[in-house]
Amino acid sequence: LTPRILGERGVMLGAEYRYLTRFGGGEVGLQVLPGDSEFDDETRSLFTYRHLTLTDDTRGRVEVDYNDVSDPQYFEDFGRSLSTSSTRFLRQSALASYRGNWWTLYSRIESYEDVDTTLSANQLPYKRLPQLRLQVRRPLGSTRFDYGFSSDATYFDRDEGITGGRIDVRPFIRYNWRTAAAFVIPKLTVAHTRYLLDETPATADDTPDRTIPTLSVDSGIFLDRDFDFRGSRYLQTLEPRAFYLLTPRSGQDDLPVFDSGLYDFTFQNLYRENRFTGLDRVADANQLSLALTSRLLERETGAEFFRASFGQIYYFRDRNVALPGDLPDTRDTSEFIAEVAATTRFGLSARTTLQWDPDDEQTEKAAIALRYQPTETAVINASYRFRRAITDIEQTDVSWRWPVTDRWSVVGRWNYSLQNERTLEAVGGIEYSSCCWGMRLVGRRFLRNTEGKFDAGVFLQLSLRGLGNLGQKADTFLQRSIPGYVSDF
User: Phi and psi (nearest 5°) for 271?
Assistant: First the structure.
């Protein structure tokens, strides 16, 4: 049991039960606040259940993730961070899967509990009742070809809006030509989708379908050179890569949108066959992605000390396939994206990413992260991130876990918004560990919601080695707050 004192509201009691079986395990959690004096004396509660079972050969798995809350205002009042306080949906799902030598079968039932009262019924995510997926991939004899398909059958349900089933089948064939110095991989995919809709206007088709082919060619070259520096041998690589994608235009405005959206643009998006998530939209494309990566590795161990990657997409025609309400994309190039990472033998590492819009001549995203971790239990982090949006995001984040003696350590975090000129979260605390027991005492003040309200709390955790923990799970919270944090008890 974990008590949480909430000022005039009273005392919230939390309980957690963990279990292990031969094939898996899980945890059950419950938080209850009896008679909340600031909520008409109603009882407030949150129930969570997570379970995982694996088969003997680890090829099969069953997962359950169930969450239930007493009222939509719960996370607004008791969330421990801005992201938690802004929770919009609670996931309730169960899935089972099994992986064979050349196939994978997956099934899922998924629903959501709405905890955002500002959303209308037609803005809620669809329930999957159920979803069945089969993926097959096999080599074609002893040739360089492989072939297979992915198939998905899902029934989507919601209180408002279009509901119904969707069947999607995507066979493919691919040729893998690889040597130590280069590769060329052409691939042909055909996407066929049919909908079985429940209720549609009299003039609309309740079984619309589409069939769209996609051709892609992925290619690259590996160049390298050896050199010596201060008595050590290193390998420097130069790895240009080109990815061509061709998908014909196909009108899809009459098809519903159950689970599709746009991917956030990242370096991996240079090599995606579809810019849309989900299966409701197949993006039209005639484009070429060009990228260059260079790495520095220690010859003897293969350890990577430096990596730099740069890339951009060049479009040969406009992209007309879009989500409802979006306009066609007429740009000639994508944003320019760069990623650089470096590490040293004495625990210092750095990573930076940059996205530059050549049309508007401005930075869309930027991030810099530094970490100093000379030992497993000592770490200092400093980072900066910027993202241009309707409301720009510009933040700094500093965190640490540092031993000051053999038994005492200090922990902390300071997350600051440069855009709004205010602290988003401040954390400070101490840890003590000995041969038999350990203790954490952590204080925290954080922004609770977008209206600017702050909350504060104190975590106290006692750990008896080999027996268990008493008090709130401060170690789990610190692992989320401090990258690289490792507890020594």
Answer: -115, 15
- pLDDT tens digits along 20-36: 999 999 999 999 999 88
Average confidence (pLDDT) over 95-119? 92
> Measured between alpha carbons, how far is 261 from 265 in angstroms, rounded to an integer?
12
In percent, how much of the chain has pLDDT > 70?
96
Instruction: Find out whether 99 and 59 touch, Cβ atoms under 8 Å.
Output: yes
Does 468 have pLDDT greater than 70? no
Digit-coded pLDDT (tens) for 241-291 = 999 999 999 989 999 999 999 999 999 999 999 999 999 999 999 999 999
Distance, in Å, from the CA atom of 201 to the CA atom of 245, rounded to the nearest integer, reads 36
Structure token digits, residue 307: 């990596």
11, 30 contact by CB (below 8 A): no
Rg (the chain; Cα; Å): 26
If one compares 33 and 79, the residue with the highest pLDDT of the two is 33
Q: Is 60 exceeded by the pLDDT of residue 82?
A: no
